[in-house]
Structure formats: C-alpha cells, structure tokens
C-alpha cells in the first residue's frame, strides 16, 4: 500500500511586506516575519505530500514560507531524530515525527487574472506536490465560452438569464502521480459570501457600501450576486470534474468552498445524491400513472449518478469517529466547515473500481477565534481558516 496525505490551506492574504494588497491593508516587515513564521510552522505540522494553498498574492512569498518551513524542519530533525548509529532509529515514532522537506517538490501557482495594482490586488491559488506533476497543471478562470444560464419561459418576457465569463478566482487542476496511480487534483477558492455591489457611472463608490445610509434591500441584492457567482463557479468546477471522471481518472477536490457541505454550491460540486429506488417514480415520458422506471433502469440510473459523485473526507471521518464537530472557520458565533476535501469513489473503500481509501482526517483549528468576541485576538498575522488533512492509502 502507498500512503500519502493531502491538505488544504487558506493562508489568508500571503504577500510580502510593505505592499498594499487591499485598500490601506499591508504588512510591516515585523508583521510579515511573524506571519511567515506562523505559516512555516503550520506547514511543518501538516507535513502533507500534496497541499492546496488559497489566497496567494505572490509566488515568491509562498516559496519563501516553504523554504523557511524546510529549514526549520530539517533543523528540528537533526535535534530530535536519532542518527544511523542508534539501534532504535527505525522505531515508527521517529519515522512519524520526522519532517520531510519539499526540496524536490513541484509547485504550481495560478495567479488571478483579476489582479490589480496596490490596494486592488486579487489572490490566486497554488498546489505543492512532493510527487511532482504529470503534464502541465491547467488553470481555469477566463472561460473560452461564456456560461449562459437561461431560466426558461416564465411569463411573457421569459424567466431571465445569468452570464458568467470569468471566475472570481482561478481553479487549478493538476495530475499527480501517487504510487502506481495518477490522481487529478483540483484546488479552488469560490466566491465569498461578501455582497457584490455595482458602482454607478461617475459615482465614487457603490451606494450600498455607505453604511450611514443603510439600504437592506440593496445589500441583500449584493448577496444574491455573490451567491449566483459562487454557484456558477461551482458548476464550472463540476463540469471539469465530470470530464476527468468520464475519462476514468480518480479525482480529489480541495479548497475554500466558502460554503458548508450541504450548501447548494457544495452539492453542485459533489453531484446528486441518488434515491434508493427509482422504480417507484413516474417515467420522464409517462402517459399513464402506471408508467414507472423498470428495475433494470433503476440500477442503471443509480450507477450513472454514483459514477460521477464525490464524497466528503470530513463526512467519512465523522461517520467513523466519536467526534461530533469539525470546523474550519469561526465568525459571529457560527462555527462551520467551509474548507473541504472531496474525492471520487475510486478512493472509497469497497466502491466499484476502488484504488484506495482514507484512513484518517485531521483539522488544525486551535488558532481560530470567534470574531464576535471583543477579546478575540488579532488574527491578521495567522489565518482565519483551519487547515484540513486527509490521510490516504492506495493499493499498489
């Protein structure tokens, strides 16, 4: 069996010092040094073979953090891992404690095509792989053909439509060789729940952002825009996932979904959950109340759905453990998981065509604080997301 780990890490605004990424927001040299040190320590703790990073403003800053993690990890190994002259050096505890540097790892970075100048920066994503890549990783952001969502005929003027030509942040797809297998890995950061507001021509800012003239209806419309964008981006990701699955490739998807497992956008990514029995349902072409799907059609429908479904690593872990709560974000009294790792049934034990399974799932979230509390510490220098790691095992 081949063991490997895969992790998702939203680093929260990684950029070098004295650079204004959002309006009036930047790191002093001291703040950046603190943040880089914290990120390096988290990378050492995860020690994952494949890591998907979100909120990368600068590739050079990410490379610096990885290099710092390696330097500290190697130094720690020298202090704590027994050398070859020790007869007990092969004990499992030392193998588990040893940090493995990313010296020969491959790093793919997808910058954001929406990135602007100082104060108008937009983050990208990255994938770090100790196994390298098969072929060149692909970036999905500018769409060759617009996504036109037609709401169909609903009244004399129709039901309206929605068009998406570009994603708010890139999706990065890489094929990773693990043991005797190649797994297609997607890393994404879908549109946040922050409202999208349109600035009228000639106006200095959208009127909805003036909270002294609070407009609840207009701000709700901003939420509608961001939700539509997030769900449309989820569909673009879903389309790419299905293409890989239909080509027979195992798939893993990770990233900041900005929604929980049961949100519509997350369910778009994972696919439909099949009914237990379609034989009781009226056929799509029914002419009488007795026109139901056959037993054979029921089996075919369920297989077609299951073949392209994805499964949540967190959900598998919760089913098997006594733990009743996993969270990767905390704000306003709400603790939720918006960072996810999903996998195709190739990686589900006992599923048709299974090549492996997940042994364990872990989350690093001790640094998270609820922002609604007045005494919550300043987390600009850490991350406002927990890190999640799936521990996988593949058949040789």
Notable characteristics:
single chain, 396 residues, alpha+beta, Deoxyribonuclease I, Chain A, six-stranded mixed sheet, 14 strands, 26% helix
Task: Spell out the blueprint of helices and strands.
Layout: E1 2-14, H1 29-46, E2 50-56, H2 59-80, H3 92-97, E3 106-110, E4 124-129, E5 134-150, E6 161-178, E7 181-189, H4 216-246, E8 251-256, H5 264-270, H6 295-306, E9 310-312, H7 313-320, E10 329-331, E11 334-336, E12 339-344, E13 356-364, E14 387-394
Parallel strand pairs: 1-2, 7-8
Antiparallel strand pairs: 1-14, 2-4, 3-4, 5-6, 6-7, 8-12, 9-12, 10-11, 13-14
Helix pairs in contact: 1-2, 4-5
Offer a quick outline of the entry:
This protein has 396 residues and is α+β, with helices and mostly antiparallel strands. It has helices at residues 29-46, 59-80, 92-97, 216-246, 264-270, 295-306, 313-320, and strands at 2-14, 50-56, 106-110, 124-129, 134-150, 161-178, 181-189, 251-256, 310-312, 329-331, 334-336, 339-344, 356-364, 387-394.
């Amino acid at each position: 069996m081949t063991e490997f780990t895969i992790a998702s890490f939203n680093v929260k605004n990684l950029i070098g010092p004295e650079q204004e990424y959002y309006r009036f927001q930047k790191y002093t040299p001291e703040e950046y040094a603190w943040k880089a040190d914290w990120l390096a320590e988290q990378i050492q703790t995860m020690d994952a073979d494949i890591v998907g990073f979100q909120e990368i403003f600068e590739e050079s800053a990410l490379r610096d953090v990885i290099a710092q993690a390696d330097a500290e990890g190697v130094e720690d190994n020298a202090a704590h891992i027994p050398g070859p002259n020790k007869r007990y050096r092969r004990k499992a505890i030392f193998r588990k404690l040893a940090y493995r540097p990313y010296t020969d790892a491959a790093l793919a970075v997808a910058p954001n095509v929406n990135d602007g100048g100082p104060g108008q920066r937009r983050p990208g994503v990255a994938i770090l792989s100790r196994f390298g890549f098969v072929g060149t990783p692909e970036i999905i952001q500018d769409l060759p053909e617009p996504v036109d969502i037609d709401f169909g005929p609903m009244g004399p003027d129709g039901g309206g439509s929605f068009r998406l030509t570009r994603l708010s942040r890139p999706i990065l797809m890489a094929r990773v060789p693990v043991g005797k297998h190649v797994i297609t890995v997607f890393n994404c950061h879908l549109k946040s729940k922050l409202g999208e507001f349109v600035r009228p021509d000639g106006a200095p800012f959208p009127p909805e952002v003036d909270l002294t003239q609070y407009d609840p209806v207009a701000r709700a419309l901003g939420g509608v825009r961001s939700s539509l964008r997030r769900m449309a981006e989820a569909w673009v990701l879903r389309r790419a996932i299905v293409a890989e699955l239909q080509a027979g490739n195992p798939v893993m998807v990770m990233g900041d979904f900005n929604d929980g497992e049961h949100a519509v956008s997350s369910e778009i990514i994972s696919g439909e959950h099949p009914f237990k029995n379609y034989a009781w349902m009226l056929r799509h072409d029914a002419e009488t109340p007795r026109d139901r799907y056959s037993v054979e059609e029921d089996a075919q429908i369920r297989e077609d759905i299951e073949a392209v479904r994805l499964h949540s690593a967190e959900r598998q872990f919760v089913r098997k453990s006594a733990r009743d709560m996993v969270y990767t974000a905390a704000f306003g009294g709400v603790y939720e998981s918006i960072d996810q790792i999903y996998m195709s049934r190739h990686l589900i034990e006992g599923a048709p065509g299974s090549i492996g399974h997940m042994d364990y799932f872990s989350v690093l979230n001790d640094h998270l604080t609820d922002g609604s509390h007045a005494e919550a510490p300043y987390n600009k220098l850490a991350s406002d997301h927990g890190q999640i790691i799936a521990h996988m095992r593949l058949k040789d």
